[in-house]
What we know:
Blueprint: H1 3-6, H2 12-24, H3 27-34, H4 38-52, E1 57-60, E2 63-66, H5 68-95, E3 100-107, H6 108-113, H7 115-125, E4 129-136, H8 138-147, E5 152-156, E6 166-181, E7 191-192, H9 194-197, E8 201-205, H10 210-221, E9 227-232, H11 235-243, E10 249-252, H12 253-259, E11 265-270, E12 276-284, H13 291-300, H14 303-310
Helix pairs in contact: 2-3, 2-5, 3-4
Amino acid sequence: MSKALERIRFDLTSIRLFIATVEHGSITRAAEQQCVAVTAASRRIAELEAQFGVALFQRRPHGMVLTDAGRSLLAHARALLQSVERMHNDAVAHAQGHKGLARVAACTSAALQFLPADIRAHQALFPDIDIETQEGTSYGVIKAVVQGTAEVGIYEAGVSNPPEMMRTRPYREDRLVLVTHKAHPLARRSRVGFADILPCDLVGLNEDSALSMLLVRLAAGHDGKLNVRVRARSFDTMLAMIQAELGVGLVPLGVARWLAMSKAFRHIEIDEPWARRQFVLCHRHAPDISSAALSVAEFLAQPERRAMLQT
Length: 311
């Protein structure tokens, strides 16, 4: 242990107070939330500043404002609490007879199409490892792994690159199709390109979703403007809007086969390379990842092994 670490004497209560003060902009409100006396809370913040030798806040009439140093340490404080939470959850898992708990975040397309079967195959091989999943956008998945709320992430490759501290590997591919109502003019087509889709009223997902950002990039490449008539938070809602003839939408083929099997829908092939998407697996390097999560990541990154157990 370094001499610098030996001099650190703060506890988790002080870290929680620091974060709460940032979130509330007030020591008084932070103290109330943490059930600590205001004078004690103020003293703890001052002790943190003294130990690190920097001012964490600017004291202003309207509240507490982070300094540049405070903003830098805030990320570490949040990561510290998340690490402690993971430690607690892993201890609980072992105490209950489990050998590990892995937290996996996946974008919606991957969570719907691939993850259920992959988790089932992994648990058949490693029954003592529990897997906790969370679903979100590809950006949200990367953020969850960076912040430590998830250990393994699965996101769409075209969205963003994770920080260099992450290890990335290919996961799976999918293919987008155009889903229309059977009465839509494009419903009679066997295949379409983006030039055919651009003039249509569209039913889209939230603006921060990978599909929405893909549409924006494609429209920019065609010097066109998207006609997004309505946005939905899920594929279920999106397909309900399409069934109501509010527009057409891009949907992963696996999702369309599952959720859009009504005779009211038509699935039309998209005859362009952008319709095929790659999903990426990301996680921290050892030793900054639990053995349980590393087991899951290694399994998900081996398609032959997954396929063997799913047959």
